[in-house]
Amino acid sequence: MQKYFNQFDITLTELQKNQFLLYYNLLIEWNSVMNLTAITDFDEVCGKHFADSISLVKAVDLSTFGSLIDVGTGAGFPGIPLKIVFPHLNVTLLDSLSKRVSFLSEVIEKLQLKDITALHGRAEDFAKKPEYREKYDICVSRAVANMSTLSEYCLPFVKVGGYFVPYKSQKGLEEIEQAAKAITLFGGRYQTKVEFHLGEEEYRVLFLVDKVKATPKKYPRKAGLPAKEPIR
Hints:
- This protein is an alpha/beta fold.
- It has helices at 14-31, 42-54, 79-85, 98-110, 123-126, 147-154, 172-178, 180-185, 225-228, and strands at residues 67-71, 90-95, 116-120, 136-142, 158-168, 188-198, 202-211.
């Protein structure tokens, strides 16, 4: 397992290794009755899910952040691996499917993780709630939507001075150009991109977007609209 984290200069403790192993076992157990991931081989999960989640360290220094929200977390990627490796983070996992949230809640309990919550709901609704709006140092999201739509989901959660960092593949290079208007409209400023390969083959890019001003109150629009009618 450790070899997959070496590329990020991270050395796992025995506790962290055990937490990742338990996470993997729960993932496989729950995956037999619901669709959490198509990747089930242990080494592939370590490389393509666990280590990929941790790749955020290439874009930001996580020791300087206190709170993080993972929008559309699915099976908990990248939020849970980030919490395991950076236990000081106060993490919120948000997903629209209640069954996935039940899985996440069990992972949190079995791994004995503190200061982490799994919420069932849509980003468009939770970003309107005062207790979540513009409350986070950093918002991450992995393989959820195109950049324009994702910016509308995510930037309302980020406090001014914080960051929105989406995880993307090759297609993201095209999306970031199309999302320029949306990012600005929602209070963001595209700063830079960090490109790398996961292992030897898979291309990844992280886009670093700072939150420079408050998101206008009318955003995000009502549930479904950001995906149907992305701002371009």
